[in-house]
């Protein structure tokens, strides 16, 4: 069993004033007022943490970076190891969002150590979850699959719906990326049910995105797009800028798989602009890949496409996204095979290019 979802990153008085479904503009305004009136270093640390998380989810990464460091300094001044762990969790999550995966690992590892020593079970669990998510995004499934399962069991044991949704979505994503679509769909749909019952709108939005992804791969683009439209409404209501951009990228993925290349091109361009505004390199690179593939399908010159793929391969290698790099190599192989014959590289029906499905490139956890 599980209870209603809650947001443990909103601490002290903020925990009473804010909920898991509070819009992030509201969170930001409330947290700033709390920071301005804070009477102790610990109160400043807690308020700055909420400022950091609101800015991160709004896509304001520079402000988020300043705020989590402010939180950490105040927590250190207060001598509170748990508050320091929460600040480092926020910093590590921001680093992952920005594509700095080695930095994310370092910050989250230190957060785990501090939380473990402090006895704060939630800070420890969230920091471990962040490490697991970072490894999964990098494609290191062997290293993190067991940790995802353990975190899911801990969430169930303590009735924490939000954490269950995160862990279950991560496990589902690994099944999806390794081709077990039936299991992935089962887990994503269960995540939707849990998030709905727990009144976790953010978790529901991310889980709907996962369901839509699998339905699209299985040849149901219209159902997938309807679910993504529902999730998009949630993202806009809660000011989830990063989640909205990933939603748009998934809409483009669905359009691409359905052969609607012009629509996919336009939607990838929209997602690319959104990620660029947020300075989110992982989303930028994934959107650029989709845009490159869509343009190639529409007949773009193969030489220009191959040049872009070479640049993207370097970006994915630098960021550490193994699965995304494999997608680049697979599409390059398609182009080179087509170019070796008499067919037009950009037109799969003429070239006989098999349609490979594009993976989602990883999901941000519901708790992140």
Automatic annotation (TrEMBL):
TPR repeats lie at residues 165-198. Residues 343-368 are annotated as: Disordered. It comes from the Bacteria. Pfam families: TPR_12. Gene3D superfamilies: Tetratricopeptide repeat domain (1.25.40.10). Keywords: TPR repeat. SMART domains: TPR (SM00028). SUPFAM superfamilies: TPR-like. This is Uncharacterized protein.
